[in-house]
Write a structure and sequence with these properties.
This is Si:ch211-203k16.3. This protein is α+β, with helices and mostly antiparallel strands. Helices cover 38% and strands 18% of the residues.
Length: 394
Amino acid sequence: SSGLVQCGEYSNQVLSDGKCRLVATLPQLDEQRCPDLFRCSDEVSYWLHQNEERKQQIMELQETVSEVQEELRNHRHRIKALELQHDDAGTQNSSLEHRVHELEQRYSEANTLLHIHASLIYDMQAQLHNLSLQLEKAHRTPLCTPSSGTRPHRGQEEARHPEVTRVQNCPVDCASMYYNGIRRSGVYTIVPSIRGMPTEVFCDMDTEGGGWTVIQRRQDGTVNFNRSWKEYKMGFGDLHGEFWLGNDHIHEITSQGDYSLRIDLEDWNNKQKYARYVSFSIEEEANHYRLHVNGFSGTVEDSFAWYHNKRSFSTPDTGNICAEISHGGWWYHQCFFANLNGVYYKGGRYNAKSRNLLGPDGVVWYSWKNSDYYSLKKVRMMVRPRNFRPRLSP
């Protein structure tokens, strides 16, 4: 022990006379010291002060607890509100998920329909293309029934206008196409009355009233005209470019009636001339496609009819020396004044020695250039019924 005596219990009371009574329970007497009343008073004061501080702290703690409780209630309200919001959000999310699922289904359906429509469009385009081809073919070949026999029976009026009466049946040439309402140049199908076999031809509906069936064209040298007898018989080349229609076809067309011939020429200075012949036809293959041409007129001197009329057709493979030298198929006669199926030389002038030639072989019309060694730039041969008359409207 430190020797200090602790104060005991105490109490204070206000008496009726206004005086205070202090009662303190003193500690046990020490063997050496009496109780110190003043020290106990100090301790009492200290305890009182501590007691007040404890009360104040308790009150502050109570306030703090109240605030915490209030805040806790607020938090509980907020939590409840958040739970409600969460429930609403869950409901909204569920609704959104359902909506997204519906949209995905619609997208899948739309995508499927898109593929189906694309397939249908592709099929329709293919059908449209086929219909266009059929329409073009029908446009080129009006509906008709080919005539039977070698020549259809014609009355006096029909004989004067063969190209008109044939339209009622099948178009036998480009003049028939013209009278049937066709006014645009291009490739069409005709049915010559000799054999009644459909034949594609190029129709010129612009030159001198139209109605021309083109039987030959040279324009750029893209087609080789040094061909065999069989090739000249059947025809070769491109109807939109350079070609020879074919001796069989030319014979069939010009044997249907009286036909005239027009030859268009162009040199390398872009000057143009033409030759017209009132009558033109060739015989059948058995007679070597013998030429019949006369009645010349035009803007260039004649180099064809006066020299080549009634000559047989020949090609390099038939043994004809002129055809071999001239490298083409033509109605040669010692050898030519016109050689429209000859070799195509760009620029016009060509030299036999420099090319190691036995003689001239170009695309020649002698009377225009007074030379066998000037090859023309463009040539076109076409036929039309002699009595053809253009119309102002179909």
